[in-house]
Amino acid sequence: MKNNLNRRKWFRTSVAISAAIGTTTIDGCIPGGSHDHPELVWGRRGFSEGRFLKPRAIAIDPLDRLYIVDTTGRIQVFDVDGNYLHGWSTPQTKNGRPTGLAVATTSGFFSGGVQASDDPLPTHCLLVADTHYYRMLCYTLSGKLIPEKQIGGIAGYAPGEFAFVTDAVCDGDGCYYIGEYGDSDRIQKFDPSGQFMTAWGGTGNQPGQFVRPQSLVVQGQTLWVADACNHRIQRFDTSMPTPTLVDVVGRQGSEQGQFYYPYDLSVATDGTIVVCEYGNQRLQRIDRQGNWIASWGGPGFQAGQLYQPWGVVIDSASRVHVLDSNNHRVQRLPLSQLS
Fold it and tell me: What is the tally of helices (H) and strands (E) in the chain?
């Protein structure tokens, strides 16, 4: 909490200094950054439909619908132009709100049950990292909770128990990977029926260890992990019974290819990775080996600037959608602006 307060104090101070020297905005570019403006900015602060209060996670489905959860515990669904479609709320929010979302396929998933007929994609579901309730929730894409598909719900260290859940994803075999931080800083793997398979990690800064594995992304037999408080990305091969480390990318800093609290990442169709940095308040695009390609953003309130962003996705038209959390909005830019 103290570190968060210090970061907020730094940000507000930098804004004040910029105003004092006669500028109206902060330069939207940090070393290696882009001056390009986004093609679309939408959203504003509020509690009504289509507005946000510090959105915390974003996911996208094959029809390019955006699923966004904010600190009210609402999950709202939009098209790629920011038009509100529908929404719902998670069951409990008193202890805290979700910080991770992912769309998963449901091959064989609903045996013994039938999805709602109004679901736009009956073969998919939404996984929710219900962080402060130590569990993964599962919804149909129309917002119907599927209680029998919940994993977790008990705080603890044993298999199937969790500290604070950060993210949950599903691979092509229907297995789940659930990250957690706090006392455990690990990832647990479950089979398609929700039975525990294995776990790895642990708190630390050595390869294969984590300090807040904030975001998980599955790509074939590769699991990418945004190891947020170690300021790096780790890549694992999931073809083994216990996933094995492939490599570690990045280190703490603000230069090209360095990270400061990477909170989310998205893998483009060409295999490059777009990283959303909460601390450096920018996006970076890197190749699979971690070589820097481009940066975009920087601290501020204007279009093309970010204030503590939390999430990023790439749609089917190779457009990047970044969750500009403390500006209570979403910004969209073509992936080509990160090249």
Answer: 1, 24
Question: How many Cα atoms occupy the beta-carbon half-sphere of 280 within 13 Å?
Answer: 31
Cα torsion angle, 239, 244, 247, 252, sign:
positive
> How many CB atoms are closer than 10 A to CB 179?
30
All domains of the chain in start order, with CATH:
2-110+120-338 (2.120.10.30)
State both tokens at 237: 């091969």
The shares of helix, strand and coil residues in the chain, as percent rounded to the nearest 5, are: 10, 40, 50
User: How far does the chain reach from its first CA to its final CA, in angstroms?
Assistant: 35
Structure tokens at 217: 């992304």
Phi–psi pair at 16, nearest 5 degrees? -65, -40
Which sign does the torsion angle of CA 138, 90, 98, 59 carry? Answer: positive
Place of tokens 């600190």: 71
Q: In whole angstroms, what is the distance from residue 295 CA to residue 335 CA?
A: 11
Determine the Cα–Cα distance for residues 215 and 110; give it in Å rounded to an integer: 26
| Per-residue model confidence as pLDDT tens for the chain (339 residues) | 444 445 445 444 443 333 332 332 333 333 334 457 999 999 999 999 999 999 999 999 999 999 999 999 999 999 999 999 999 999 999 998 999 999 998 754 433 344 455 788 889 999 999 999 999 999 999 999 999 999 999 999 999 999 999 999 999 999 999 999 998 999 999 999 999 999 999 999 999 999 999 999 999 999 999 999 999 999 999 999 999 999 999 999 999 999 999 999 999 999 999 999 999 999 999 999 899 999 999 999 999 999 999 999 999 999 999 999 999 999 999 999 999
